[in-house]
Amino acid sequence: MPDALAAMSRALREAPPDQVVEAADRALRSAFAAVRVDVFLADYRISGLWSVLDPELSAGSLSGQGAAQRCFSSQQPVLDPHDGGRCRVWVPLTAWGERLGVFLVELTASPDRPTVDLVAGLAVDLATTLRAADRETDRYRRTRRRERLSMAAEMQWDLLPGRSVTHEAFQLAGQLEPAYSVGGDHFDWSVDPGRLTLTTLNGAGTGLSAAMLTALTVNAIRNARRSGGGLVEQAELASDTLFYQHRGQRHVATLLLSVDTATGRARAVDAGSPRVLRLRGTTVERIALEQQLPLGMFAETRYTVQEFDVLPGDRLFVVSDGVYDAQPGGQEAYGERAMARSMRSTRLQPATEAVGTVMRELFAYHADTDLRDDAVVVCLDWCGPGGRCER
């Protein structure tokens, strides 16, 4: 069995970037006489799963109860028996906690546990390979998009670090909406030894100009962070960069957050409007931070750090004003009661499901019409060192 997995992993590494799925297909047909192999990727809105080999073929809506949907949501293998003794094996396609989709292998008979484990192991290698290959080919991005992205959205999605990540101390996930036309709202993170750094931006304006402003801000923050600068240095470099580029005419409300993965001590620079809410048990409350000036408003603005503790079991949501200030049809702001209610309803869901739940509730609040403003939701589940991030 280990030799078979090593051979299949080698086949993935040697495949051209646009032929990774075909390499997995050949390897599994040879090793197990599989009758069908395919990869289904989640679309940008995470509303459905779509075939790489046949991009018009869907495994169904993620609101359904099919085997593929159960596999994607539970992140566990699912066996789906079919006529003639055949069995479809669905396994999650996940790299470092980012859920890409699901991997399908159809066999002539129901597999034993070692075979399922082998397919699941190959799926891990396949997911990692697909993430690397995604930089070299457009094939997988074409599969994921169900409609044309605006130019601004194209820039925003390319700028993201991913949509979720898992660490022994935490789970983290985020979602942008409207997925195909988002302009300025954004999130970024970096997982480093002993520390998680998270940035959430409430971009100003709409369309391409907003995306360009956000891109400048994110890269200025990254430049300071990658040079060893802390939150204050990150905020001040980004603010000065924006000011000297736009002379105070354009600015970006930003929340910079870092958490010590050994202690759970959080440090924050609140430079504008993104809010932090904590779900502890069944109680949702806003973490009060002193709001400082948005990045880029004035020259040589100085920022200070505030601190608070995150306890094992805490869930933090960071949301932009497109979420908490939404007032469709003159209703009260979404953040007053509806957002807290939707956050409480996620307490048994993993972070990757929770962001989708809050976004779906936001769309429902808008009566399923297009959002009037960009919206970003980031969810951080804190487990603590040696903790188990399971819900």
TrEMBL record:
The keyword Hydrolase applies. The keyword Hydrolase applies. GO terms for molecular function: phosphatase activity. It comes from the Bacteria. Keywords: Hydrolase. Residues 167-382 form the PPM-type phosphatase domain. PANTHER family: STAGE II SPORULATION PROTEIN E (PTHR43156:SF2), STAGE II SPORULATION PROTEIN E-RELATED (PTHR43156). This is Serine phosphatase RsbU, regulator of sigma subunit. It comes from Micromonospora matsumotoense.
